Amino acid sequence: MKEDFLHYIWKYKLFNTSNLITSAGETIEIINFGLHNTDAGPDFFNGKVKIGATTWVGNIEIHINSSDWIKHKHQNDKAYDNVILHVVYNNDKSITDKDGNTIPTLELKDLINSGLIAKHKNLVCQPESEIACGKQIATIDTFTINTWLNRLAIERLERKSIEIQSTLKLNKNNWEETFYQYLFKYFGLKVNAQPFEMLARNTPLKIIEKHNNINSIEALLYGQAGFLDQKIADEYHQKLKKEYNFLKSKFDLEPLDKSVWKMLRLRPSNFPTIRIAQLADLLNKETRLFSKVIEATSIVELQLLFKAKASEYWENHYQFGEEVEKNSVKNLGITTVNSIIINVIVPFTFIYGKAKQDEELVEKSLKLLEQLAAENNVIIKNWSALGVKPNNAMQTQSLIELKNNYCSKKKCLICSIGNKILQRD
Questions:
Q1: Closest CA to 399 of 193, 163, 187, 151
Q2: Global confidence as pTM
Q3: Quick count: other Cβ atoms within 10 Å of Cβ 90?
Q4: Half-sphere exposure of 3 toward its Cβ, with a 13 Å CA cutoff?
């Protein structure tokens, strides 16, 4: 038995509400169950309860055991002075208010259906790695699942917006700079996300904008990343190093330590050296990417905008000075471009639309997700195995949100699917 389950029982009135009496034997009529409070203070605000012949308006506090009132030190907290009813699973102690009056207590132990308790236990006791309702989700109607997924798509974008807003504030509301930093971070994937973000912060966009040739941009990025500190007998490396030393002195730059980059267990095509070359090509063609993103009217336009490839040197290299036999153009693949649209472009379009009160941009962000194919990763494969097969990227993003922020945290009580399972006969 957990307290959040009792909150759920009370909120949705999932107990026998007829012929209620307090622990002192007085009749109880619940006129208003109150408003659920998820912050500090009493659990339900502005409840209305008739006890005996008197009607009370105030707050309602819920505990597993009535003695938890003392354990949580509510007797010393003025926020609990206006509690009119103490709802507990087990009444193990009589509780009094600051004036010594007994607080009316309602014990729920014998009022909750044992089948409901068993259903809840069955959900929350599943291993964290598994979907708690995995064996039952196939029985849930499509309307309930789709409606919940639509809501989660918005929830995921709003959650991402909080982080973007924080970075935007640090950048003095500079949308281009903030987008530039997030783009770099995403290019690093999970393994090198932090070093790439550090590289972007260490190499402000305004410096990149002063150069309109690929050699200078590559020199800036590789130099700032720490890849030009090495002594390599390689003509291309030496050319970039010479250019960087000039730019470093001109702009008073300080490079990262090369040790921050991770190569272990990475596919060579995802090495930071290749990713930096692709970023350089992208920035050489267009530095004001955020403006272009907002102006874009279709998926195809965005895909073309982010079409990039590593320079010729990297056709037979993955690292400086180490030539390989395989000769191939290192293009930024369409799957990666689509991932950039999903994880960077869509959240920025969404939050910019919210900031500018432009509903068309907000709607555009959602339509972009709907127009992109479903993602393919471990989380989505697991959902598909359970019979929940997404049709587009909007649904895959929702399913990722559902798994990471509901299923893994056992938040079945605030999940529409969990609710459906718990409350059906």
A1: 151
A2: 0.84
A3: 15
A4: 14
Q: Give the separation between CA 162 and CA 207, rounded to whole angstroms.
A: 27
**Contact yes or no for 390/380 (Cβ under 8 A):** yes
Which two tokens mark 271? Answer: 């090495």
Residue 346, burial from CB neighbour count under 10 angstroms (0-12, 13-18, 19+): buried
Q: Which residue has 């707050």 as its token pair?
A: 59
Per-residue CA distances from 414 to 16, 282, 411 (Å): 22, 43, 6
Q: Write the burial class of residue 62 (CB in 10 Å: 0-12 exposed, 13-18 middle, 19+ buried).
A: buried
Q: Count how many residues are written for the chain.
A: 425
The pLDDT, as a whole number, for residue 425 is 65
- Closest of 131, 254, 134 to residue 203, by C-alpha: 254
The DSSP bridge partners found for residue 62 are 87
Lookup: tokens for 302: 């965005």
Residue 325 pLDDT? 85
Segments in the chain below pLDDT 70: 128, 425
Residues 214 and 276: their CA atoms lie apart, in Å, by 12
> What's the gap between Cα 56 and its chain centre?
41
* Angstrom distance (rounded) from CA 256 to CA 224: 6
CB 42 within 8 A of CB 60: yes
